[in-house]
Every structure is written in structure tokens, then in C-alpha cells.
């Protein structure tokens, strides 16, 4: 199912263009944010301070995009007074942009841990976990954005399911790192840098899930924020209430 | 400056009632969230698992309130098609409600640390810091909500300033706890429970600041999300653009 299906009922061609534009800007911002996460992870794993500094300084571009998209949404709300699925699209964008900006913040926090680790010497453990969970949430962000681009609720549901797996992987990584910390307390400080970075990655997964939930809201008109996976699956399976 | 000043231009009395209602619901939710944070802190400090379990189970009430207020906002947007300061009010509420819900989540996470600490035995350090930073962010949440209730931008600015202090207090608490952990590695696991709880408190401060920023946006029409304190102060000092 593609965007045009939902928005084909517009009388105003200009309004269609505005909606397409703001959605395109969201996806562009998403692409940048996804890159920031990947660069932050590689800066940590490769102990590359320069790359980490770049991630931190580029965060202001993401902040600017957030403000610009938010203004676009407000302008559409004020001038076009959208209803039904158009209103949902604008609201879903204005909420997703907050999550994207927060993912950008988490990338910045991971980069900060990377800088500290590059200074203090590497951690004896945890890089495998950073790489693994980092990859996992990186794909989640990309899939959540793809789901938004195509209004693909099955893909959105898959992202929500992945978030549960990430939470489990995170819990297990933290437990094993804590065990190791107790065995080798000299490395506590570096291990904590890794733990903070892992926690940031887990948050990235949460935000990807939030965006996926907006896709389901947009298509189905149902707020699934506090649904469990079973309830969310049932919602995705029920016939759509088009143009409501 | 009170709410009526901004919203006195309505023709529809019923619309005024709807706006007042949704704002009241936000503030009620805020009151509950503030309580959850305070209870979570005292459950941790007093090693009171029952209280901590109650905080966790009561989180669903907060989630329900989030969904209900969000629906109210969407209904107003769809039916009333608000403009100018009314539109800003609805958008500010629909964003603040997300922050309140996340504060509720952080209270739940603190309660989880409380439960783990009650099981594993108390941490040798960190309670003073939890109490101190917990009090600080508790007041910030209350002040952010008061600022929203009264549309008081000076108070909102004060909350943003407090957030900077909390970040400093948090950084210093983390550093001293890490030093202690290295000296006494047997208590790593409990110290980490305290560190996670402190991190949650620091997040609560961030969310209170976000709500304060919405108050400035609401009154001044300016998005101050990525302003530093100096720039934000300048914005608050400039004359208001009423009813824009």
C-alpha cells in the first residue's frame, strides 16, 4: 500500500505537494539520523575520536531539521486545517520527528562514550555486543522509516517485535558485562562507557518502535502505544478503516 | 499572566470549555506523574518493594491518561480546526503529554531498581545523591506544570536553568560513585542499580525542561528546543507576540 492511496482524495494539488514535501523531509532526516547512529557505533568500536567528534558536531543539523519540519507541520495545521488521514499524517510526522531527534541525541551520547574510551584505553569486553545490538537497532531505524515511507503496517509490526528482541539482547549483555566487571574491577570505568553506549542503543530501538507505532496509527487510526505485541498484531490484522 | 488572557477571543463558549478541559487533564496527569516519581524515590531509599510494585502497576493509569488526552487533542484539531494560540495550546499539550508519560516510565524504571536493591541488599553509597537529585527533579516537574498552568514563561525559564544544574549534579554523583565502585568492587551490582536510578532522574529533569520549553513556545510562538540558556533568556525577555 502506498501513500497515494490514502491521499488521493485531495482537491487541492498544492496541499498534496505540501504533505509529500513534509513526509520527504522526515525521511531525509531519518536517513541522516540512521547514518549518525552507524557512525557513532563505528567511532566507538574503532576508537576513532575524530569520527566521534564529527557525529557530535553534526547533531546540530539534525536539530535544525527537527525545528524546520515541526514548523512545516504547524503551517499545514494552521493553513490547511487537515482532517481525517491528512491530519493523522501531519500528527504522525510531528511526533516521529521528536523520536528521530532523540535518536540523534543517543548517537551523540554514544560518540561521547567513544571519545572517553579513546582517551582512557579500550574496554576489555563489550565491543561484540555494541556491534551486534548496534546493527540490530540500525536496521530497526531503517525499517521503521521504510514502513513510514510505504505505509507498510506489517513492516511496522515487525519493528515492534524486533524491539522486544533488542531489549532481551540488551539485558543479557548488561548481565554478562556486570559479571565481568566484578571479576576485573580495574576496568570498571571503561566497562561503564560500554554500558552507557549499550543503553543508548537500547533507547534507539525504543524510538524506532515509537515511529513504527505512528505508522500503524496513521494507517489504522488506532493508538497502539501501550499495546503488547499480541494486541498490536490483532490490530494490524483487522480490516482498514480507510480515510477515517 | 493567566490562561484567559490568551483565550478570551473565542466565539464558541463550548470550544473554550474543551480547551480548558484538555489542559486540566494534562495537569491532572502531571500531578499523578509527579507523585509516581516521589514514590519511586522513596521506595528505593526505604527499600520498600511493595511501594515500588505499586508504582509499576500504577503506570498503566498514566498510559491510559496519555492515550485519552491525545485523543482529546486530535478531536479538537479535527473538529475545531484551531488557529494561532489555540493551535499552539493543543500542540503544546499533545507534546507535553509524551514527556509526562516518559517521566512515568522513568519512575517505573527507578521502582525496578528499588525492587532489585531490596532483594540484593542495599548499596553502600548513593542514597544521598538519589534523595538530593530526586528532590531537585521533583520540584522541576512541579514547576514545569505550574508554569504550564499559569503560562508563566519566567518560571519555565527557571526550570530550564535548573536542568543544567541537575546535569552537573548528576555528572558529579556518577563520578564519585564510579570511584567508590573501583575501591569496593563487591558492591558493583548494587551501585549500578543506584547509577541507573540516577540516570532515570536525570532524564526526568530533561523531560521537565521539555515541558517548560512548550510553555515558552505556547506564549511566545518560538521553538526554543535547541536554544542555550542565554538565547532562551533573551527570547523570554522580548515583548510577546500575542494571539499570533
From TrEMBL, chains A, B:
One of its GO terms (biological process) is intracellular phosphate ion homeostasis. Coiled coil: none annotated. One of its GO terms (cellular component) is cytoplasm. Pfam families: PhoU. It comes from the Bacteria. InterPro entries: PhoU, PhoU-like_sf, PhoU_dom. Belongs to the PhoU family. This is Phosphate-specific transport system accessory protein PhoU. It comes from marine gamma proteobacterium HTCC2143.
Amino acid at each position: 500500500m502506498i501513500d497515494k492511496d490514502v491521499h488521493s482524495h485531495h482537491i487541492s494539488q498544492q496541499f498534496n505537494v505540501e504533505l509529500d514535501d513534509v513526509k520527504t523531509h522526515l525521511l531525509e532526516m531519518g536517513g541522516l539520523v540512521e547514518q549518525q547512529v552507524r557512525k557513532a557505533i563505528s567511532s566507538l568500536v574503532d576508537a576513532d575520536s575524530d569520527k566521534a567528534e564529527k557525529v557530535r558536531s553534526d547533531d546540530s543539523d539534525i536539530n535544525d531539521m527537527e525545528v524546520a519540519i515541526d514548523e512545516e507541520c504547524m503551517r499545514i495545521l494552521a493553513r490547511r486545517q487537515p482532517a481525517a488521514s491528512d491530519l493523522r499524517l501531519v500528527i504522525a510526522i510531528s511526533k516521529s520527528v521528536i523520536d528521530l531527534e532523540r535518536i540523534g541525541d543517543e548517537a551523540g551520547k554514544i560518540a561521547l562514550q567513544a571519545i572517553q574510551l579513546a582517551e582512557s584505553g579500550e574496554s576489555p569486553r563489550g565491543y561484540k555486543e555494541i556491534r551486534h545490538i548496534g546493527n540490530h537497532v540500525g536496521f530497526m531505524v531503517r525499517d521503521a522509516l521504510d514502513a513510514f515511507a510505504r505505509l507498510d503496517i506489517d513492516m511496522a509490526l515487525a519493528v515492534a517485535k524486533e524491539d522486544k528482541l533488542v531489549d532481551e539482547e540488551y539485558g543479557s549483555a548488561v548481565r554478562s558485562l556486570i559479571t565481568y566487571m566484578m571479576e576485573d574491577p580495574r576496568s570498571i570505568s571503561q566497562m561503564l562507557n560500554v554500558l552507557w553506549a549499550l543503553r543508548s542503543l537500547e533507547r534507539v530501538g525504543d524510538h524506532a518502535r515509537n515511529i513504527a507505532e505512528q505508522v500503524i496509527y496513521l494507517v489504522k487510526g488506532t493508538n497502539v502505544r501501550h499495546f503488547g505485541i499480541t494486541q498490536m498484531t490483532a490490530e494490524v490484522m483487522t480490516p482498514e478503516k480507510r480515510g477515517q
